[in-house]
Design goal:
This protein has 391 residues and is an alpha/beta fold. 41% of the residues lie in helices and 13% in strands. The two termini are 36 Å apart.
């Protein structure tokens, strides 16, 4: 049975060029970048080359890039670090109701520590309401943190407009760009972003490595205490091989964004339109056009998302019913509830996330299998179609 992987928003495959770039730093160039001998200096050069590659991908300066263990760490550091560094000025933070839990749970913890947080509503497509953002700003507001693109429904936020609002009020602006890097252009200067989080394994680098962009002049409280790594701001010996891999991966991922987006958008649209055409009582979640090129999130009524996932898995097809970080929860997605879906529809959601390694042939196979699965599961229901529609 041929397997089809359409869960790239959860993680991606490490590609051969990335693995090839990493291998010497696992076996031959194994020095500690902090060591002053030749082994260490060689490792340090590789570390700084990767820093330059990451910086170039987002139009930043190399000294504005700090390596982390993952996107979640970068989010935590940005939000907590900025909140505490700015505490004398104020203790109010603004975020959205559909952020990744790396941001939401961090904000909730800060509330327990005495900070005030406003969770902005979104419209039916998952877009932050800019007028609500303006209304939420107070003299105590020190940080706005809004993701660049949503990990579940793929909606792209108006980051440049949010950046202008933040700058006009003298407020720091952080964006979680974990899903956006390698999918859409990201320019920290043009967007007016003060901090940006990214994670390597979302664009074909290994798991366990990420980065935080911090604009020159922005002060953050240190995330970890210890040695002087990352210019004394993030202690701990750097994960050199993975950092080298991330540098090469981001270089490759951003080399032809327009060409990649064209291919992904064609497959995504065929998948979304195919589901709507072939399966009654289905709907697309997220913005119809202002969304990540490879994201297809659909809800299919009268069926649990878990049953759909398990049935697809038996056919060798990997997808998701929400974000990978919440797959152990029985509760419906907070993102789908925030865009106004009732519980029973939110429970029947599927997320297909494509990469450039997918093909149109695979899309057609998924559509064929999904239609058959939905028909079978609905036929197994003890309720009649008329009774199902009343649910």
């Amino acid at each position: 049975m041929k397997r089809i992987y359409m869960d790239n928003a959860a993680t991606t495959r490490v590609t051969e060029p990335v693995l090839e770039a990493m291998m010497p730093y696992l076996t031959e160039v194994y020095g500690n970048p902090s060591s002053i001998h030749a082994f260490g200096r060689e490792a340090k050069r590789a570390l700084e080359k990767a820093r330059e590659q990451v910086a170039a991908a987002i139009n930043a300066k190399p000294n504005e890039i700090y390596f982390t263990g993952c996107g979640t760490e970068a989010d935590n550091w940005a939000v907590r670090g900025a909140a505490y560094a700015q505490k004398r000025k104020g203790s109010h933070i603004i975020t959205s109701s559909i952020e990744h839990h790396a941001v939401l749970h961090t904000c909730q913890q800060l509330e327990r520590e005495g900070f005030t947080v406003t969770y902005l509503p979104v419209d039916e497509y998952g877009v932050v309401k800019l007028d609500e953002l303006e209304k939420a700003i107070t003299p105590e507001t020190t940080l706005i943190t809004i993701m660049a693109a949503n990990n579940e429904i793929g909606t792209i936020q108006p980051i440049e407009e949010i950046g202008k609002i933040a700058k006009a009020h003298g407020i720091l602006f952080h964006t979680d760009a974990v899903q956006a890097i390698g999918a859409i252009p990201m320019d920290v200067r043009a967007m007016g972003v003060d901090m940006l989080s990214l994670s390597g394994h979302k664009f074909h680098a290994p798991k366990g490595v990420g980065a935080l962009y911090v604009r020159s002049g922005v002060r953050l409280q240190r995330f970890m205490q210890g040695g002087a790594q990352e210019r004394t701001q993030r202690a701990g010996t750097e994960n050199l091989a993975s950092i080298v891999g991330m540098g090469r991966a981001i270089e490759l991922a951003t080399a032809d964004l327009a060409g990649k987006a064209e291919k992904l958008t064609a497959m995504r649209d065929r998948l979304m339109n195919g589901v709507i055409e072939a399966i009654p009582e289905s709907r697309v979640n997220g913005h119809p056009t202002r969304r990540l090129p490879g994201n297809c999130n659909v809800s299919i009524r009268y069926i649990e998302g878990e049953a759909l996932l398990l049935s697809l898995d038996l056919k060798g097809i990997a997808a998701s019913s929400g974000s990978a970080c919440t797959s152990g929860s029985l509760d419906p997605s907070h993102v789908l509830l925030a865009i106004g879906l009732p519980h029973e529809i939110a429970h029947g959601s599927l997320r297909f996330s494509l990469s450039e390694e997918n093909t149109m042939e695979e899309v057609e196979t998924v559509l064929e299998e999904l239609k058959a699965i939905v028909t079978r599961l609905r036929n197994m229901s003890p309720l009649t179609p008329e009774e199902l529609k009343t649910l």
